[in-house]
Each structure stands twice: as C-alpha cells, then as structure tokens.
Amino acid sequence: MALGPARMNLLIVNAGSSSLKLRVLSDKDEVLDEKDVSDWDGSPEPIDAMGGDVVVHRVVHGGERFDGPVVVDDEVEAAVEELVPLAPLHQPRALELIRHTRSGDRRVVACFDTAYHRTIPAMAATYALPAEWRENFGLRKFGFHGLSHAYVARRVPEILGREVPRLVSAHLGAGASLCAIAEGRSVETTMGFTPLDGLVMATRSGSIDPGLLLWLQTSGGLSAEEIGDALEHRSGLLALSGRSGDLREVVAGLEGGDEDCRLAYETYVHRLVGEIARMTAALGGLDALAFTGGVGEHSAPLRAAVIRELGWLGITLDAESNESSAPVISAAGGVAACVLEAREDLTMAAEARELLA
C-alpha cells in the first residue's frame, strides 16, 4: 500500500556552490541519515546511497514563475535551467542533481529560496529603472536564502516563548543576507535580482556602485565575463584580505597583525551593521535579531562586534551566553539576540509535505 505524503521519508538535497548537505527526514522530522560534503565537486554520487521516498531539492532562484514548491517535470526543469545566468554559482549544480534524481523512480520536488520573499512590497522590490526594462526582462528584487529565513521566522518565537512581530534574520555563511520579517512575512532583504547584492561575502562583492562597473567596461577595458567572474569568485573577504574568503582565517590574520585582514574584517562588520539598521527601519523597530548560517552560528567574536555596534537599538550582549553560542545571547529586558542552526531542510520538508498532500 502506498504511503500518504505525511508518512513519507524525504531525502532533502541542499546543494551549495561548493558544499552538499543531505538529510533523510522521517514524517516526524527525525534525521534518519545524513551526509555533508564540504569540498563537493558537483558529482551526484553522494545521493545514490541515501534513502527516502521523495527527493526534495533546494533551488536558489525561482524567478517570477515559482512562488512555492513544485513537483519537477520537464517544463519545470527547463524553467530552472533558464535561470542559471542569475545564480551561476548554485543553479547549475542543483539542476544537475535534479536531472540525476529524476532518472530514478522517486518523485522529485523543488523548493525555491526566492519564494519566501514574494511578500516584499512593491516599494522595496522595485528598481528605479525604465519601465520597459522592468517589464521586458522581469527586473525586480527577488531575495535569496528564503528557506533559511523562513525557518528563523518560525523558530525564534519558539526559542523566546513569545511572539516576535519585528525580527531581523542574519544568514551569514559563504553567502550572506539579511531579511526583515514582520509578523512572519518577509518585507525587505539585502540580496536583490541576483545573490550578488547586499552584504560583503566570502568571494562575492555585495552591493557596489553600478557606475563603477560601467567604468570598468568602458574605460578599464574589462569584458562583462571578466567582471562577472571577479564579482562572483574573486571579491569579498578573499579580495580584501588577500588570504581567504573564510572569516576564521581572516580573524586569525587580524590577530596576527595582518592589516589587510583587519580591513577585510572591519569592512564586513561595517556593512553588516549598516544593513541590519536598514532592515530595522523597514520594520519600524526591532524585537529580535537572529544569527544563523555557518558564520552566524559559530563566530562569537563577530556576533559580539555586531551587537556592540547596535547597542543604540536596545540590544545588550550576554558575553557568557555568546561564548557558548546559547540560543539566547542577549541580556533580559531589551531587544533579544538569538543564535540558531540553519535548518533549511525542515522548511523544505514542510513545504514538500504540504504540496504532496
């Protein structure tokens, strides 16, 4: 007898630009099997040994078409492929894994990082560009890391034991973005039409003056391909430190007296603090700030530096809790600060079960 959607074990596939996270979840969200590949070469082989009745893929870019999870068929696969130029680090690898799993006998579901941000109001999502460009090319802010931000929106009220009407979620990893969450819904975020926008990241530049890019082409003699490669792969912390895109190595260099690493770290913090303030403005105030992602979860010094700069918002650090990465790292009585593990897999599982039901 076939299992109902709620009772199916799900294989959750989270493909990053250089990492692969696999989880088999039971109908009660218990982790039955897991595998993490940190230096992933793009091969689909790690999936083959994993169980699960349905395969659920994280797809970074869903464009204007996908505002929720879908069962993948040929038409959906083709639409995902069309969006490769907008997320060249992630989309091709997710697409390869989708094709691989579709060749088997399991159903395949795609969940999109952009979908959570479809609630962003027009004033925040619209670029001040000619109308014909916006209409012909579908130019708008899409936002990313939505599966992670959606989990933060659900989990932080559980951690604090109360409603959190105004929440800023900071997903800080190799890629990084913030999300302003009002009553559980995304109303602003730092990434835009592509995942290049916003914060300084490991190898991505974040926001820069578009006129600078035009100058590099017209006066600097660089091609669009050269600029694109540099913005994706040779910018961010890697470019500023001259050492690494890994914040841990940048901090180690800073502590050793490396001035390039100091500049990289201070620039990273400066942009992060400023963008948190902008997200707070979009919410009209702040009830809680949440750190997640590899950097957000594990870098106590970074969290301390950010919270010190944001003391004017009413956040006070509890140093002991911060050092142990406790779920709550703020002093009682003010704006709360939380730390939580990124669990896109739980958001994806919930979306897939609802879709299949």
Q: TL;DR of this structure?
A:
The chain folds into two domains: 5-112, 2-Layer Sandwich (Nucleotidyltransferase, domain 5), CATH 3.30.420.40; 161-339, ATPase, nucleotide binding domain (Nucleotidyltransferase, domain 5). It is built from 15 helices and eleven strands.
Provide keyphrases for this structure.
single chain, 357 residues, alpha/beta, Nucleotidyltransferase, domain 5, 2 domains, six-stranded mixed beta sheet, five-stranded mixed beta sheet, 15 helices, 11 strands
Descriptive report:
This protein is of the alpha/beta class. It folds into 2 domains: 5-112, ATPase, nucleotide binding domain (Nucleotidyltransferase, domain 5); 161-339, ATPase, nucleotide binding domain (Nucleotidyltransferase, domain 5, 2-Layer Sandwich), CATH 3.30.420.40. It is 40% helix and 17% strand. It contains 15 helices and 11 strands. The protein has helices spanning 45-48, 74-82, 91-102, 122-125, 131-137, 146-160, 210-218, 224-233, 236-241, 247-255, 259-283, 293-298, 300-309, 319-323, 344-356; strands spanning 10-15, 20-25, 31-37, 54-59, 70-71, 107-112, 166-172, 176-182, 185-189, 288-292, 336-339. The strands form 2 sheets. The protein has a 6-stranded mixed beta sheet with strand order 3-2-1-4-6-5, sandwiched between helices. A 5-stranded mixed beta sheet has the order 9-8-7-10-11, with helices on both faces. A hairpin with a 4-residue loop joins strand 1 and strand 2. The longest helix is centred in the C-terminal third of the chain and has 25 residues, at 259-283. The radius of gyration is 20 Å and the shape is globular. The two termini are 16 Å apart. The mean pLDDT is 95.
